[in-house]
Automatic annotation (TrEMBL):
Belongs to the Nudix hydrolase family. GO terms for molecular function: hydrolase activity. It comes from the Bacteria. Keywords: Hydrolase. The lineage of its organism: Bacteria, Bacillati, Bacillota, Bacilli, Bacillales. Gene3D superfamilies: Nucleoside Triphosphate Pyrophosphohydrolase. Its cofactor is Mg(2+). CDD domains: NUDIX_ADPRase_Nudt5_UGPPase_Nudt14. This is NUDIX hydrolase. Residues 40-170 form the Nudix hydrolase domain. InterPro entries: Nudix_hydrolase (IPR020476), NUDIX_hydrolase-like_dom_sf (IPR015797), NUDIX_hydrolase_CS (IPR020084), NUDIX_hydrolase_dom (IPR000086).
Length: 187
């Protein structure tokens, strides 16, 4: 399979949050798409955070585009000159006040929506977390921290007993698989 050729690009807008770009593309078969829109966003990190008591740390916040309140795992953009690992540790500390002496485990790196977006999400698992700090939120953030039983969260997700987004559900089931494999390896 061959890649498409970019003939031209123009920006409709650029903001600190993201950019909207329109490309003219030529497909390998010669067909031309005059108006292919790309949303440019920063990469972000998220993490399943499990406490020493086997609780999962979720943040509750209102999401304007979804017009509802959601339970999510801690997440955010990577800041300039920051590694992904440093970024997720900072985001967890700022949003929840939790930290860990255990290094984050990278579970995966995925494109968010490669049809129309250029960013990816890097997902981590943070074990043995404990509360050490107060939240340090931006003025636009209003976040409540909740602890759920780690083993029961899958049932809550599958039965829609809590509202969440795809990235939280995906990260949880990835972490659950990772930990199950680790347990089998240790037997």
């Amino acid at each position: 399979m061959k890649k498409w050729k970019t003939i031209s690009s123009e920006y409709f807008y650029k903001t600190p949050f993201g950019n909207l770009r329109k490309d003219k593309c030529e497909l390998p078969n010669g067909a031309v798409i005059n108006d292919y829109f790309i949303n440019e966003y920063s990469d972000w990190v998220n993490a399943i955070v499990v406490t020493q008591e086997n609780k999962i740390v979720l943040v509750e916040q209102y999401r304007y585009a979804g017009n509802d309140i959601f339970f999510e795992i801690p997440a955010g953009k990577i800041e300039e000159n920051e590694s992904c690992e440093e970024g997720i540790l900072r985001e967890v500390r700022e949003e929840t006040g939790f930290t860990s002496m255990t290094r984050p485990i990278k579970l995966g790196e995925f494109m968010v929506n490669p049809a129309t977006q250029n960013n990816k999400v890097i997902t981590y698992l943070i074990m043995d977390a404990f509360k050490e700090f107060e939240q340090d939120l931006d003025e636009t953030e209003n976040i409540n921290v909740h602890l759920f039983d780690y083993d029961n969260l899958g049932d809550l997700l599958r039965t829609n007993q809590i509202k969440t987004q795809l990235f939280t559900a995906n990260a949880y089931f990835m972490a659950k698989d990772f930990l199950a494999e680790k347990l089998l390896d240790n037997k």
